[in-house]
Amino acid sequence: MQDPAISADFPATGRIAFQGEPGAYGHEACRHARPDMEALPCATFEDTVEACRSGAADLAMLPVENSTYGRVADIHHLLPESGLHIIDETFVRVHISLLAVPGARLEDITEAMSHTVLLGQCRNFLRRHDIRTITGADTAGSALMVAQAGEKHRAALASPLAGEIYGLDRLADEIEDRQNNTTRFLIMSRRPDHARRPDREGRNRMLTSFVFRVRNIPAALYKAMGGFATNGVNMTKLESYMVDGVFTATQFYADIEGHPEDPPVARALEELRYFTSSLTILGVYPADPLRALQAPAAAG
């Protein structure tokens, strides 16, 4: 059955696009969240968005934040400009392996290659084994380069799936600094899907994501946020970032619990609109069940 959020403007392809080479964590996210779809690798996040926008893929998988490293650079700029809509989120537990050519031993490794985000998640292991880091374009691409080079002193930091795909040995597993290391991905579509609601047991609670700019009046942000507090709407994320390279032009990204048609959320958004110069809903979607498991780990 075709996903209702997939636009009829293009024939369904059965593909979901992700950034990176086969074996990337985006690939794992696709297999986890949409196992019935073909994962389509793309060189950049922009290419991933364009694959969905052009109809080459039905959906796009984009990482937005990691529990160890923080938010993924450029994604918050890309989301509002993409023309796509968030229809789901999925959390992927990031297990990092040290991958090397067959026959290499851990004591042979003097340098390791990976994406800068992953390198920052394994600092303790790399320091302990005196391994120098090399920044690669992405995780699975680094594994591919290590496999092609065939040098026993060089390893890649990537997923076990990447090691399997490129024929590399796993010299060490789960070497990430934090055992709750998790990346949140958003699934994007050409068409929004606002029809879903929580079930009778209260599961599948809904989230709404949006971006806004406040009006140039005193205490505008404080006043804009007041509507969520007075209406009892929980805001799970609020981040600011510059736009157009200007220090005085600030855009905010927010996630809240609830659906825009829920009366408390509708009242809070109405109040927000009064204090904003622009407001764009990026998506309305169910919370991933793994989201609830992140709270105790984050509090520790």
UniProtKB/TrEMBL annotation:
UniProt keyword Lyase present: yes
SUPFAM superfamilies: ACT-like, Periplasmic binding protein-like II
GO CC field: cytoplasm
Key words of the record: Amino-acid biosynthesis, Aromatic amino acid biosynthesis, Lyase, Phenylalanine biosynthesis
The organism's place on the tree of life at top rank: Bacteria
Keyword Amino-acid biosynthesis applies: yes
Start and end residues of each Prephenate dehydratase domain: 15-190
Membrane-spanning segments: none
Pathway assigned in UniProt: Amino-acid biosynthesis; L-phenylalanine biosynthesis; phenylpyruvate from prephenate: step 1/1
Reaction it catalyzes: prephenate + H(+) = 3-phenylpyruvate + CO2 + H2O
ACT domain span: 209-286
GO function terms (MF aspect): prephenate dehydratase activity
Annotated site (Essential for prephenate dehydratase activity): T183
InterPro entries: ACT-like_dom_sf (IPR045865), ACT_dom (IPR002912), Chor_mutase/pphenate_deHydtase (IPR008242), Preph_deHydtase (IPR001086), Preph_deHydtase_CS (IPR018528)
GO BP, sorted A to Z: L-phenylalanine biosynthetic process
Record-linked PROSITE patterns: ACT (PS51671), PREPHENATE_DEHYDR_1 (PS00857), PREPHENATE_DEHYDR_3 (PS51171)
PANTHER family membership: PREPHENATE DEHYDRATASE P PROTEIN (PTHR21022), PREPHENATE DEHYDRATASE-RELATED (PTHR21022:SF19)
Protein name: prephenate dehydratase
Species classification: Bacteria, Pseudomonadati, Pseudomonadota, Alphaproteobacteria, Rhodobacterales
